[in-house]
Design brief:
This protein has 19 helices and no strands. By secondary structure, the chain is mainly alpha-helical. The chain folds into three domains: 130 residues, no CATH class; 53 residues, Annexin (Annexin V, domain 1); 84 residues, Annexin V, domain 1, CATH 1.10.220. The protein binds calcium ion (CA) (2 copies). One calcium ion (CA) binds next to loops.
């Protein structure tokens, strides 16, 4: 992995999904002959354990457009209380799958272990454009009646919180012109705030990485390597620790390639424990209409196997576990 993230050769010429808004690289289009009611019946059967569970969920939820999923979600919720009653386990599973298009971080916190809230928040705020963050913030307000930044403040603390809150404002510079002199100056400032200094001036890293545009930061990454003979990611890893290190590294990775960053998250989620399903679902469903083709390609490049086969193995194992519990 280090090699992949350390290679800056083609960086300045590659497209950035933080600025792409088309759906041309998505894998999901509107399904022809779509009927929400039919999908709801299929989902209910799957959730009640008639037939294979996870495969039906994945088929239905990744084979419909976002607008279609919203209709399924609505149809499902209108009928689901009478059918499922107070059966908590299916409800959690269903809510995890169906509400993931909103990706409201707080919804997940109570079902996860310690540390996973931060990991989820890091992924969400490092990988999204201003427009996506604005949409998330609006959805959060509509769903909970509270401001997202207000709730974030109560979830997290320290330099990590400072960084997250800047990102949550969704005010990253989105201009596309690159100022090379400024990139050189930023690279020097970062070098002096980290490697050259006894201790670390974290605020310098936070300021530059949260405010500059993606093209500007790419130039800065190149200048930083020329100046220090290290990648900025390596310096962040040496200088910092914990949630702040994870978040700043995630930003650097997303500046390089959001699809590659998400491919890595997906890979780790299929190998890890605990929150794997919500990571899988959030990325698979959240990116399906945007850049899933790129994520697949990056996955293959990074790990030498297809995303499909990796998830298939994971889903089969999950099926076995679910059957075992019944
Ligand atoms: Ca230092
Ligand atoms: Ca470290």
């Amino acid at each position: 992995m280090a090699n992949v993230w350390g290679d800056l050769d083609l960086l300045l010429d590659s497209p950035s999904s933080l600025t792409v808004t088309s759906t041309a690289r998505g894998t999901i289009k509107e399904k022809a002959g779509f009927k929400a009611a039919e999908d709801v019946v299929a989902l209910r059967k799957a959730i009640e354990g008639i037939g294979t569970t996870e495969n039906t969920l994945v088929d239905v939820l990744t084979g419909r457009s976002n607008a279609q999923r919203q209709l399924i979600c609505k149809a499902y919720q209108e009928g689901h209380l009478s059918v499922l009653g107070n059966n908590l386990v299916p409800n959690i599973t269903v809510n995890d799958h169906l509400s993931c298009t909103l990706c409201i971080p707080a919804c997940y916190t109570h079902t996860q272990g310690p540390g996973t809230t931060e990991a989820t928040l890091t992924e969400i705020f490092a990988s999204r454009s201003n427009k996506q963050i604005k949409a998330l913030s609006d959805a959060y307000l509509a769903e909970t009646g509270r401001s997202m930044t207000h709730d974030l403040k109560s979830e997290v603390s320290g330099d990590y919180a400072t960084t997250l809150l800047i990102l949550a404002e969704g005010k990253r510079d989105e201009s596309t012109n690159v100022d090379t002199a400024k990139a050189k100056a930023d690279a020097k400032a970062l070098y002096e705030a980290g490697e050259k200094k006894w201790g670390t001036d974290e605020s310098k890293f936070i300021d530059i990485l949260c405010h500059r545009s993606v093209p500007q930061l790419r130039q800065t990454l190149v200048e930083y390597k020329a100046l220090s003979n290290k990648t900025l990611q390596e310096s962040i890893e040496r200088e910092m620790s914990g949630n702040l290190e994870d978040l700043l590294v995630a930003i650097v990775k997303c500046v390089k390639s959001v699809p590659a960053y998400l491919a890595e998250r997906l890979f780790k989620s299929t190998k890890g424990v605990g929150t794997t399903e919500s990571i899988l679902t959030r990325i698979m469903v959240g990116r399906s209409e945007m850049d899933m083709l790129d994520i697949r390609a990056e996955f293959k490049k990074l790990f030498g196997c297809s995303l499909y086969s990796t998830i298939k193995v994971f889903a089969d194992n999950l099926d076995r576990k679910l059957c075992h519990h019944r």
